[in-house]
Every structure is written in structure tokens, then in C-alpha cells.
């Protein structure tokens, strides 16, 4: 609701037309300024959502590169583009006193959220992942109520339960909906039955059954997706469930990004971008080093896609940061997800 209508309705029993004429020039000026700020925040959020959507689409086409490497190059691009602008800021380039911890948390939360979101795209369709992440505004309202004391009413509670139901349907959990029978499974089962009846191929049958139970040897992993296949065999989870867990991680951790930026609303936007990107990039390098084999893009069009991700991410984060500094975190999260 626009601030000018909301303010007038509260003061004069829901009669905005007559109450505007009874206001002083100072009150009218303040309400006009608030309305302009509200509309500016909404427009910035819509543009930010557009850039984020394009970035997600580009990431889907990045092949043979781990999610950590992709996210690391994303933040490297933000660092390069924000550094000269942060130097021109009147504030210290590494932030003002008392903001270091919040900026560090912004970097950790942002990096973790992006890593989970990119990882989810390796296991499930972009549509299913987006459905889960679109529930973020409801949880942002919850955290904003706890940490920022923003409004949270009965409609938000209803939206919370509806979002949880939507997540359950999007995740397609096997213990709720059952496991779908696929043609490939029938072929594998027939192959196993045939191989068991022959004595000379007993070893091959054992290997096939073991592979079906996700305990195959590491030498059977494909080179391009060795880290994904390894995770599947170690924990024995389906692609859909792994993607759901990653999407939920991106959703919950991403909620803190809105709250933290709102806390840093007096810090220059370029200073925030520069510092949190450094922390996020370090986090991504560490994740890649300890959990994945770092794979740099070398051939095809992948390097160009990585370069494009860095540019798009800079503008997406810049617009989002400024929008949250202007408008409430819950409102911005709703508009942003609505525009994706």
C-alpha cells in the first residue's frame, strides 16, 4: 500500500481524499517524499529481480565447472566493478567502525546462499528450484519481525503455511508421493535378472546391483560430474531431494541477506558490495578446495558465460542493496521474487 494512502487512512477514519486537503504543507511534502522513496525502491527491486533471473538462466548453461567456482568468479566480477566506485565513496573503503561484523556476515550469508542455489541447479530443474526459492519472502517477514521489528500479521502466517505446502509439492519427496517408475529402472532390473541367471557374468551382475544401490567404485564416476556422482553414492539420496535441500538452504540463508542489508542501510552501497564480495569469494575458494576439485573454464563458451555472470551479478546486487536500504526488507523480498 502506498504510504500516502496508508497515512491518510490512519489519521481520518479511512477517508484519504478529504484528509489530504486537511493536511499541512509540511505533512504533504513528507508524504510525497515517502511515496517517491517507496516507488523508487519497488522499481529498483524489479530491475534487480530481472538481472537475477537472467543470471540464473546463464548459470544453468555453465557446464563442467563446480558451483563453487562459478560463484567465485561471480564475486570476483563484483569486486572488479565495485572497487573504483568504492574508492570514490566518502566512507572508508573497508567500512565504518561497528559495521565490520555485519559486512562479514553479509558476505558469508550471500556466498552460502548463492552456492546452494547454484548447486541445486545441478540436481533439479530450474523451475522446481525457483518455486522453492520463491517462498523466501514469507521467511524474510519472519526474520524481519524478529530482528527488525517489522509488521507480521495473520496473512503472513497463512502465507507461511501455503509456502511450506508449495515446497513439499515442488520437492516431490518419495516418502510422500512415492517413487516414480521410470523406463530406465525397468531396463536395469531386466538386465540384472538376465545377468544373474548366467554363471559367467556373476561379477558383472554384482557390480550392476552395487551401482543401483549407490555403492559403486569411484572409478565408475564420469569425469565431468564426478563430484555429483560421488555425493549421490555416499549418501544415497535422489537428485530431487538433494536439489530440494540445496534450495531450502539458499532460501533460509538468503533471508538473512535482506535483514543484514537493512541493518547496513547507512553504509555506502559500493562499500558493501566490495567488502562482502571479497569475503564471499574467499568462502567459495575454500569450499572448492576442500570439497571439490577446482575446475577452471577452459574451452567452449563457458568462459564467456562466467564473464557475463560477473557483470549481471554486479548490477543485480547493486540494485538489490539500494532497494533494501530504501524500503522494508519484507516488501523488497516480495517484489523481487514476484519479478523472477
From TrEMBL:
Residues of the signal peptide: none
Query: Where do the TM regions start and end?
Result: 38-59, 71-87, 99-120, 126-148, 155-177, 241-261, 273-292, 304-320
Tell me the Pfam families matching this sequence. EamA (PF00892)
A single Gene Ontology CC annotation of this entry is: membrane
**Alphabetically ordered keywords of this record:** Membrane, Transmembrane, Transmembrane helix
What are the EamA domain coordinates in residue numbering?
A: 40-170
Its membrane topology, per UniProt?
Multi-pass membrane protein
Q: Where would one find coiled-coil regions in this protein? A: none
Q: Where in the cell is it found?
A: Membrane
Kindly give the PANTHER family that the UniProt entry links to this protein.
ACYL-MALONYL CONDENSING ENZYME-RELATED, SOLUTE CARRIER FAMILY 35 MEMBER G1
Q: What is this protein called?
A: Solute carrier family 35-like protein
